[in-house]
């Protein structure tokens, strides 16, 4: 999930002056860390959330908008990948997946 922060940032770690490119910088992280539970396969999808469709990423949900363009602090996705409570943080601990600071 953390990968959509790149929609709101101007640069990526290690490439301070290079603009974020969704296909190069964001999609691979989503694919590796998020699509297993929030991707195209309806049989494995959790929380009725798809991160592989733009309309779902920017949709408003009960807990707020998944991603708010230009305002990462208002994005539910950022709240979930940085949550202090490990039971609410994404990706979940039992997935054995994690995100580093550069990916967030």
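^ structure tokens above, recovered residues below v
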């Amino acid at each position: 999930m953390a990968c959509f922060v790149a929609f709101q940032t101007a640069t990526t770690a290690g490439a301070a002056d290079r603009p974020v490119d969704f296909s190069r910088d964001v999609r691979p992280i989503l694919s590796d860390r998020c699509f297993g539970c929030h991707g195209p396969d309806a049989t494995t999808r959790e929380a009725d959330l798809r991160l592989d469709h733009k309309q779902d990423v920017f949709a408003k949900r009960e807990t707020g908008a998944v991603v708010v363009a230009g305002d990462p602090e208002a994005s539910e996705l950022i709240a979930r990948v940085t949550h202090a409570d490990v039971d609410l943080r994404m990706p979940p601990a039992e997935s054995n997946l994690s995100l580093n600071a550069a990916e967030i």
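The mean pLDDT is 85.
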